[in-house]
Amino acid sequence: MRTFFEKLLIALLCTYSAYIVDQSFDMIPYLLIVIIISTVLDLVKKDAYELIIYGVSAILCLVDPSFVFFMPLILYNLSTKYMKLSALSIIGIILFSTIMTLFTSILSIYLSLKNREYQNLVIDNKKTRDNLKEDTIQLKTYNQQLIVEKEKDIEIAILKERNRISKELHESVGHLVSSSILQVEALSLIADSIGNETLMNGLNILQDRLSAGMKDIRYSIHNLHSQSLDLEKQIKNIIDEYPNIAILLKYDIREDLNYSLKFDILSIVKEAIINTNKHSDANSMNIDIMEQPKFITISINDNGTDTNANITTGIGLIKMQEIASKYKGFANFKFDNGFILRITLMKGINK
Question: Which CATH topology does 231-346 take?
Answer without folding.
Answer: Heat Shock Protein 90 (3.30.565)
